[in-house]
Structure formats: structure tokens, C-alpha cells
Amino acid sequence: MSEAVRTTCPYCGVGCGVLASVDADGTTRVAGDPAHASNLGRLCVKGSALGDTVGPEGRLLHPVLRGQDGVAQRATWDEAIQRVADGFSRIVAEHGPDAVAFYVSGQLLTEDYYVVNKLAKGYLGTANIDTNSRLCMSSAVAGHKRAFGEDVVPGCYEDLEQAELVVLVGSNTAWCHPVLFQRVTAAREGRDGPRVVVIDPRFTATCEGADLHLPIRPGTDVRLFNGLLSFLFRHGVIDPDFIDAHTAGFDQALAAAEAESGDPAMVARQCGLQTADVVAFYRLFARHEKVVTLFSQGVNQSTSGTDKVNAIINCHLATARIGRPGMGPFSITGQPNAMGGREVGGLSNMLAAHLELGEPAHRDIVQAFWQSPHIAGTPGLKAVELFDAVGEGRIKALWIMATNPAVSLPDADKVRAALARCELVVCSDIVERTDTNAYAHVLLPALGWGEKDGTVTSSERRISRQRPFLPAPGEARADWRAVCEVAKRMGFERGFEFAHPHEIFVEHAQLTAFRNREPLADGVPAARRQLQLGPLAKLDRRAYDALAPVQWPVTEQGAGTPRLFADGRFSHADGRARFVTTASRAPAHAADREYPLVLNTGRIRDQWHTMTRTARSPRLNNHIGEPFVDMHPHDALRSGVREGSLARVVSRWGSMVARVRHGGGILAGTVFAPIHWSDQFASDARVGGVVNPAVDPVSGEPEFKHTPVRVEPF
Ligand code: SF4
């Protein structure tokens, strides 16, 4: 057996440390890394099955070019790089930089993310680069920026164990972030473990054993948390000294909350809850100083997702429950490197180092650092509108990396039509066949987990190394290398001379320190950005290879920072956090006679995204083997379907086929279907084709949790 390599799980945002080794017969063995602070040796069932997913079956092993006749043929890397560079250069020359775009992924390593953003925003001069992280946590990003002045998660996982009360909102933590849930559960086995409240329309595995479950009516979270703010004020639980010294906007936010949600009985009616349960939740929150409110996709994936995030943060600011052990609002990210992507400007409205693309002074900082020929002048298109622009012919070349938008985006049939008309579609992927790769003119073989070399950042701001322990199969290459080669062929000789991910990481770390803390040229006081990796810029190659997991901001001594804002100073230029006035509003599309049920979507325990890796593991497939739609028995009866039968789920945007289940715990009037299946694994089973494309007006995050549908016999 080979010596165990310390690396990081490539699935959810918990970012568990993994010890990986290879037997003499080629079998990959994995175990939780007891030295990694995120998981302390634990792994969930998906992480434990990683060894099943790394074989050569189905891998894309060499570049492929599709000719005008539609025939796909093996090509050399040289031919493929030239085709991409020529295509992008021609389209930029004929139609301008905004006619090209990139759609990337929270699966990329930070180093990959950094160079593709640099090429797009600094060299091509377009901000049309967005990421599938837009679909999962962009509302949290926008909420953090509004409240704190920067996209930061204030706390750390230990807070969940040190809390007296953990509130889980819109999160089936037991299935979607299992190791975190295990940590909470283990803490509850002690005498002083936290009490747990779950706020979720469904009764999920997370609710089993909770002290209180609020089966909230979908879309009404803002009202519930505005009601909490009002309750805290009326019961004298707020902290006026903290509010005066460290925040702004409290009076306006409180007035709006009072006007809308001052009466718990009314809140209960609007949220579809029992008044006694609402009051019980409010009392628990009021009585416990140490409260962590952990939230996930049930909050973010909504047309009022950003307001939901801020309604939660408002309650923590009002009580000063932030920046200290065992307390704070906590956004838990879906993907392994959603956070790292955010750090290097992975979203179309962001620049690297948490700088804003819409701020001229911030653009100056980045361009001065990069010494680049261009800097994108305006924020680019967000995921849904980016694919709309492809469909309308405004974007003519699109490079997709490590994601499968033909399955995962809302209104996915429209996405397919857009890809079909796009002049040049480039896909970088580890597997040959996906629903999206079917539209590629150029396929570039990428490295997978076990082969990649770089860093990821978890939900608690912890940077960990992904280290290779397997050889690259066939001609697969790192994504950063492919991007650099294309950049150089497009004439950008300077700026992309990287020979190793270490050099990219060092440049990224340098940029986080570049003119951070200095007053800006126009006299505006600089925001104090917390994303601070400056000391890591001194790492040599050996130290980078040996880098131990560390939470940014990193101190001069190289130590991490578990909690932010302990000094009450936030990242807005005046150092104050902001209360954001929020008002509840209904989801974009209401159920009606034709579409009387509301479709909610999400993950199951043992599959990941569009199953291109996890479906290779028999033990993971054993959990739930086919697409399903979970319904209340009364709704099934009214719809003319029964448990175990196949049914068609139909919305105004499309339809899918799934097997009816009465999994229990689902509100009448709602149905649930998982996001994972595609045409590759089951016929007519893409839930993305059913989901409506409405987005949050601030974050651009789609409303995956609320699409009116009907269910009919198949
Ligand atoms: Fe991987 Fe997440 Fe499971 Fe940890 S909890 S092993 S990061 S899937």
C-alpha cells in the first residue's frame, strides 16, 4: 500500500480531511483524517465511498473536436487549444469581449478559479464569467456583503458544539452536510449540548431528535425572522450598546419588522405554523446567549433569498451574538470550493480578493496588481441571464468547466436549446458523456479528485490542500494549465507563465494583501477586507505542499482566525455592520388551479450533483436507486397517482417522470424531487427541466424551492 496522502473530500462544503492511499492492486482506500480540524477523523457515507469513484471507466482521456459535420474526433492538445484560442479571438474581434463567456464551478480548485477569472476579467475584458455557486449560495454572499461589507462567514464549526442553541434553517444537515450534523449530535450527547430547532417545510432526517421542528410554509422565512427581531426588542433581549457602537440601520429595520411581524399569532398564521411553536422558538432564541443560526439552500434558493439571509443576520446583530464562541449566523455552502471561488472573484459581479467589480477604485487595484491590458468595466451576467444571452445569440462562445448546466440549471430545456445554437461550446470535464458535453465542439480532459493539486476553502474559511495520489489518466490536464495555454495562444504571453499551482496560489495570496488597508485614491476610506492571506504569499513550493489547513485571515505568524468581528469592527468603510430592512414577499410564481402543488428540490444523502461520480459506487446507488417525487397521500389521491407508481411532474417550464413516494414529513400541497438524475441515468428525469427560472433580484439565485406543478399518472 502507498503511503497515505492528506487531502480533502471533493463533495460538500464541510471540507473534511481525507487520508488516501492506493493498494498494490490499485484499490484506493480512504479514511477520515483525525488531524483535520473540520472533521476530526469523521467521514460521511459519500466521503467513505470516494475510492469507488476514481476508476478509469467513463473518463474523458484525450481532447475531442467536433467538426462542422457534427462528427466528434480525437485531437491533440495542441489542436484543441488552437481551436479554442482561435474561436475566442475571432468572436472577441468581431463582436467584442462580452460575446464570450465562461461558466465554471465550485468543483474547481482555487488555483483553477483564479486563472480563469484573470483571463476573463483582466485580459479579455469581460465579466461574463459566472459559476454554479450562483445556484447555491449567492444569496448568502449578497446578504453578507450588505450586512458586513464583505462576503464572510463569521464563525467556525466549533461554534456549533459550543452553542446552547443551534437553529437549522432550510437545511437537511443530516443528509447534505452529514459530518457537521454528526458534530452537533455528538455535542448533544454531553450534558450541556445544544438544543436544536429545525425550520424546514419538510420533516427530514435532520428533524429526528430535534427539540422543535417548525414546518414553515415555503417562502415565509423573512416574516418569521422579522417576528423574532420584534420579539427580541419587545422582551428587552437586544444589546443597545453593541447596536450603537457597531451597527447602523437598526431603527428602520426594527420599524419594518414591527409593522409586518409584531404579533406572533399573525406570524404563525402567515407562516403556516402553530402560534405556540413560534413563541417557543422565539423564547428559546431569547433565552440562550449562545445561538448559532445555520442556514443553507432552503434560505438561499429563493426570490427573496438575500432578504432571508439579512433577516437572520439582523437578529444576531441586534443581540450582539456574533464574533464570540458558540454564536453567530452561519451560511453552510453546498460545494467543496464555493468559498475559494468567491475569494478569487468567481461570481460575475466580483473581482479577486473580495473586491467589487462595480467599484472603479477596486478595479484599479486589481488591474494595477495584474498589470493587465483590460479590466472588465461592468458586472457580467449571472448564471440564468448568461444562458439566456447564449440562447439569444449575444454570447457566441462559452467555456464550461466542471459542471453540467444542461441538467442543473432551472428551465434546463431552454439551456439545452441555448447550447445547441451557440457557435462555440468548450467543455472541460473528467467524464466523456454528460448531458452538457453532448453539445460541446471542444472537449478538454480534466483532472479529477486524487489527481488534482491545489487548494479549496470550506464553509468555515478553512483553506485545505487537495493533493494528488493518482497519476493523471490518459492526457488529462489541470484546468489552470489549459486556461494558461489558451491565454498564451491568444497573445497574452505575460500573466499566465505559471508552471505549478503553488505559483498561482502565491499570486492570489499577494493580491489579498495588495493595497488592503490603504485609503483609496479618491479619498474614500478603504474597507478593511478580512480576506487576508498575505503571509501565505511567502510560502515556497515545499511549504505550499506541506500547508496545513488554516482559516483566513492568516496572521503574520501564519496562524488562522477561527472567528471574525470579535472587536466589533466590520468590513464596511466606517467599520459598522448594517441592519438591512427586509419585508416578506411571496415567491415569484404561486400555485393555481392548473398547477396546484409546489415543487421543492434538493439533495439526497448518497448522491452528489448530477451523479457523474457517485453513481459509480454500488453502495451509494443502493440508498435510493431511482428518481422519485415525494408527495402527501392526499395530494397523490387527488392527482390520481399512488405510491410506487410512475408519475409525470409538470410545470409551465417542462416535465419529468419519477416514482411516487410517501416518504412522510411532507406538507400537503407540496412535493419534493431530488436534483441528481439526468437523461444519462434515467429516462426523462431531469428536475431542472421543471424548475422555474425566477431569480432573487439582488443575488441572481434561482428559486429552486418553489415551482408550481401538477402531478399526473404516467
Ligand atoms: Fe465529504 Fe461533506 Fe461527507 Fe465531509 S460531510 S465526507 S466533506 S461529503
What's the gist of this structure?
The protein folds into three domains: 64-136 and 337-512, Rossmann fold; 143-332 and 574-578, 3-Layer(aba) Sandwich (Dimethylsulfoxide Reductase, domain 2); 597-713, Barwin-like endoglucanases (Beta Barrel), CATH 2.40.40.20. 31% of the residues lie in helices and 17% in strands.
Q: Provide the gyration radius in Å.
A: 24 Å
Strand order of the largest sheet: 5-4-18-17-16-6-7
In one word, what is the shape? Answer: globular
Number of helices: 24
The CA-CA distance between the termini, in Å, is 51 Å
β-strand number: 28
Bound molecules: iron/sulfur cluster
CATH architecture of the largest domain: 3-Layer(aba) Sandwich
Contiguous runs where pLDDT drops below 50 for at least 5 residues: none
- Main sheet specs: 7 strands, mixed
Cofactor: [4Fe-4S] cluster; Mo-bis(molybdopterin guanine dinucleotide)
Keywords: 4Fe-4S, Iron, Iron-sulfur, Metal-binding, Molybdenum, Nitrate assimilation, Oxidoreductase
Organism: Dyella marensis
GO molecular function: 4 iron, 4 sulfur cluster binding; metal ion binding; molybdopterin cofactor binding; oxidoreductase activity
Report what the structure shows.
The chain is α/β, with parallel strands linked by helices. It has 3 domains: 249 residues, Rossmann fold (3-Layer(aba) Sandwich); 195 residues, Dimethylsulfoxide Reductase, domain 2 (3-Layer(aba) Sandwich); 117 residues, Barwin-like endoglucanases (Beta Barrel), CATH 2.40.40.20. The protein is 31% helix and 17% strand. It is built from 24 helices and 28 strands. The strands form 7 sheets. Strands 5-4-18-17-16-6-7 form a 7-stranded mixed beta sheet, sandwiched between helices. Strand 25 and strand 26 form a beta hairpin. Helix 3 packs parallel to helix 20. It is globular. The model has no long low-confidence stretch (mean pLDDT 95). The structure holds iron/sulfur cluster. Keywords: 4Fe-4S, Iron, Iron-sulfur, Metal-binding, Molybdenum, Nitrate assimilation, Oxidoreductase. It comes from Dyella marensis. This is Assimilatory nitrate reductase catalytic subunit. Belongs to the prokaryotic molybdopterin-containing oxidoreductase family. NasA/NapA/NarB subfamily. One of its GO terms (cellular component) is membrane.
